[in-house]
Amino acid sequence: MTSHAGPTSDAERSSSIGYSKAVIGQHFVRLDDQTTEPAEAIVATEVPVALVYNGRPHVVMMCTPQDLEDFATGFTVTEGIADARGVRRVDVVRYSRGIEVQLEIPADAAERLASRGRTLTGRTGCGLCGVEVIEEALRETRPVHSSATFQRTSLWKAGESLRVHQPLNNDTNAIHAAAWCTPDGEPRVVREDVGRHNAVDKVVGAMARAGTDATGGFLVVTSRASYELVQKSAAAGIPLLAAVSRPTALAVQLAQEAGITLVGLLRGHGANVYTHPARIV
């Protein structure tokens, strides 16, 4: 893969795109029982981002326009399109009123992708982007074989530390975050996006582009633990997924089958462990 891991500071990551800001100032009118007054606040931006593989459009996602190289690489890996070594080129370019990310992958991977059913757009909260049939949506989850164990105090540390690594959400209160954490609970790679699954793809992509092994740590997300986040964690080989909200029943089922420890309601010094609790010592 010719691309290298992108810069880490928020300013550098924003400028690497060059077309849209992740947040903007927005004027509005504030109402209460007695008054009407003008005000201004920071709001999150979302733009259509087209992923194009070997010149063939695949899907359009609504994303926060930041870390798009990471997003495209992570999406490629977690959706089973190609592995990280197969992503040979990632170019981010302006296209009409959105952004196009052009990727080069091996010819056989591109042929498999072309044979899939696909949709034209993926909404911000969508977990079924690029598929038309149930079999593809609920594809067989890759099993995670990991002997890694984690202290419960590492979970507490990760959950509490994540809040200080969310500059976009601190401004807007509208953006999800995902973080890959070291075994001691230190958030090492944090990405934000209006879509929870986009944030996970950005984390996986950033680690893949940097050549970092994700299997020794765990993932924390600021959302519910839905089934597609379990699928993406499994594709990246991440043995533990922790979410601040509850999981869905399908997420629990897939995590059990994949060998992933699924943690929900991670808040303060408390959490629910739904699958494979022995990994937390």
Structure description:
The protein has 281 residues and is α/β, with parallel strands linked by helices. The protein folds into 2 domains: 47-137, Ubiquitin-like (UB roll); 152-279, Cytidine Deaminase, domain 2 (3-Layer(aba) Sandwich), CATH 3.40.140. Helix content is 29%, strand content 30%. The chain has helices at residues 10-15, 68-78, 107-115, 134-137, 152-162, 167-172, 196-210, 227-236, 249-258; strands at residues 23-31, 36-44, 47-53, 56-63, 89-95, 98-104, 121-122, 176-181, 187-193, 218-221, 240-243, 261-267, 270-275. A 6-stranded mixed sheet has the order 9-8-10-11-12-13, sandwiched between helices. Strands 5-6-3-4-7 form a 5-stranded mixed sheet. Strands 1-2 form a two-stranded antiparallel sheet. The chain is globular and about 60 Å long. The model is unreliable at 1-18 and 127-134 (pLDDT under 50).
Instruction: Report the count of strand segments.
Output: 13
Q: Largest beta sheet: what is the strand line-up?
A: 9-8-10-11-12-13
Distance between the termini: 37 Å
Output the CATH class name of the largest domain: Alpha Beta
Low-confidence stretches: 1-18, 127-134
Largest sheet: 6 strands, mixed
Oligomer: single chain
Q: Count helical runs.
A: 9
Mean pLDDT score = 87
Strand content: 25-35%
User: In the residues, how many domains can be counted?
Assistant: 2
What is the CATH-assigned architecture of the largest domain?
3-Layer(aba) Sandwich
Query: Which percent range fits the helix content?
Result: 25-40%
CATH overall fold name of the largest domain:
Cytidine Deaminase, domain 2
Q: Structural class, from secondary structure content?
A: alpha/beta
Shape: globular
At the fourth level of CATH, the homologous superfamily of the largest domain is Cytidine Deaminase, domain 2
Tell me the Rg in angstroms. 19 Å
Order of helices and strands: HEEEEHEEHEHHHEEHEHEHEE
